[in-house]
């Protein structure tokens, strides 16, 4: 199986093949409109603007599985991202990334790369870990996605190269992207 075998849906219902992004470096992200990491929409937009002419794209998939932090429907969510954060990269239909209804693309992504040990060095990391442990303990097991704004880096050949947890440094993410461009 390859990432290019998957179909994704835009908020308007249009079905798109991941083939659309063949030969591009992709950063695939599960996002949310009301999360402590929502500020990353702006960071992701800056990366997209800086690197899109070199064959880089951000693909955003809203998700409401973590604390119901994306309650809007997909169309409203996409419109808010464009209006509030100036997002111009593709935003897709809302998906689930864990559990029985996991979108096939995210099931594939999370099984292609291991997640790193959950860091608890900063107060933010400790608070997030404690929250997940008390409300969503299953998300800490195996390769589950732990929270909103988990990012998967995919190279031009469609190989899933790296997984970045929500609190990963954008500088580190940009360096990893640059190596693939």
From TrEMBL:
GO molecular function: peroxidase activity
Record carries keyword DNA damage: no
Active site location: 35
Record-level GO BP terms: cellular response to oxidative stress
PROSITE patterns found in the cross-reference section: GLUTATHIONE_PEROXID_3
UniProt xrefs under InterPro entries: Glutathione_peroxidase, Thioredoxin-like_sf
Pfam families linked to this entry: GSHPx
The protein's name in its UniProt record: Glutathione peroxidase
Keyword terms, alphabetized: Oxidoreductase, Peroxidase
PANTHER family tied to this protein: GLUTATHIONE PEROXIDASE
This protein's record includes keyword Oxidoreductase: yes
Organism: Caryophanon tenue
Family: Belongs to the glutathione peroxidase family.
């Amino acid at each position: 199986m390859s990432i290019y075998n998957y179909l994704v849906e835009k908020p308007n219902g249009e079905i798109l093949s991941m083939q659309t992004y063949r030969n591009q470096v992709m950063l695939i992200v599960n996002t949310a409109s009301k999360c402590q990491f929502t500020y990353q929409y702006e960071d992701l937009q800056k990366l997209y603007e800086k690197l899109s002419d070199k064959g880089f794209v951000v693909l955003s998939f809203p998700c409401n599985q973590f604390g119901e932090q994306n309650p809007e429907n997909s169309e409203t969510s996409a419109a808010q991202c464009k209006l509030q954060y100036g997002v111009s990269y593709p935003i897709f239909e809302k998906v689930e990334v864990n559990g029985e209804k996991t979108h096939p693309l995210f099931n594939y992504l999370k099984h292609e790369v291991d997640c790193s040990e959950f860091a608890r060095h900063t107060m933010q990391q400790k608070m997030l870990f404690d929250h997940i442990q008390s409300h969503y303990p299953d998300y800490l097991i195996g390769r589950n996605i732990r929270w909103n704004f988990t990012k998967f880096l995919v190279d031009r050949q469609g190989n899933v190269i790296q997984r970045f947890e929500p609190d990963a440094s954008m500088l580190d993410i940009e360096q990893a992207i640059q190596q693939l461009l």
